[in-house]
Amino acid sequence: MEIIKEDKVLIIGAGGQIGVELLEELNKLYGSSNVVAADIKQSNAFSNNAFEVLDVLNKDQLLDVVKKNSIKQIYLLAALLSATAEKNPLYGWQLNMQGLFNVLDLAKEKQIEKVYWPSSIAAFGTTTPKQNTPQYTVMEPTTVYGISKQAGERWCEYYFLKYGVDVRSLRYPGLISYKSAPGGGTTDYAVHIFHEALKTKTYECFLSEETTLPMMYMPDAIQATIQIMHAPANDIKIRGAYNIAGISFNPKQIAQEIKKHIPDFTITYKPDFRQEIADTWPQSINDIEARQHWKWNNKYDLPTMVNSMLSNLK
Ligand code: AKB
Question: Which domain holds residue 34?
Fold first, then answer.
């Protein structure tokens, strides 16, 4: 891994589901004095790190934060996810796209050297092959979030090709974590189910029992993020976003796995508007390019993820 210890790193959206855990890992790699946390909301959660209140849509404020802290790399995690963006489509588009432009422009202007921006399986759509979805395929997303991810991928590649911007990206599946809550996604049920199983031994799922989606345990997602950001630039042959795969399961299967630990756990199903979103996404992902180009490998399967989630949440 290519780690420059003196590089100063900024995480925008540090209070979110990914940010909280990524910060911990970056602290280990760079030292907490080199990692700056930023979020739109004031927070006392980052006692070991410098913290900035930052609206990524405010380009002047963003540049001030970058200059003040001598930032070299930005992880841009601030976004509206699939379910929330459907409720506020124009703001979802604005935040997801303009936030990306503001950061990419800083790299184009040589204020920073490297950018991480997450894409998602939401960039695929109903016309995409659902099984073992390849890296290169038909992509016609039907959600605002998905459209912003697909467009963002194209812009990342454009900034790389035209301006030499070192931007790297992953198409995250649904992410499952115990340290931080998900915020406004279609895959959030796969986190809520654990909390409810432990608290009430019952869960009403907003997706139907057979809705299979690609998912990943957060430690694997953080590992992939760190790995792609520290791979030699020549190994990053895709400057849109890489497919990465973890575990594929449906609500019935995760419930059965939880029942092995909590035998009287029960699940009921009441699909809502998120079902329609889930139905447009792939069920499993082929990530051969990530595995070949920068040696990505996931560790967790369904039983080990469920076991780890339950023991950590207890
Ligand atoms: C969502 O459900 O919106 C996200 C995602 C798959 O990108 N978790």
Answer: 9-174+217-243
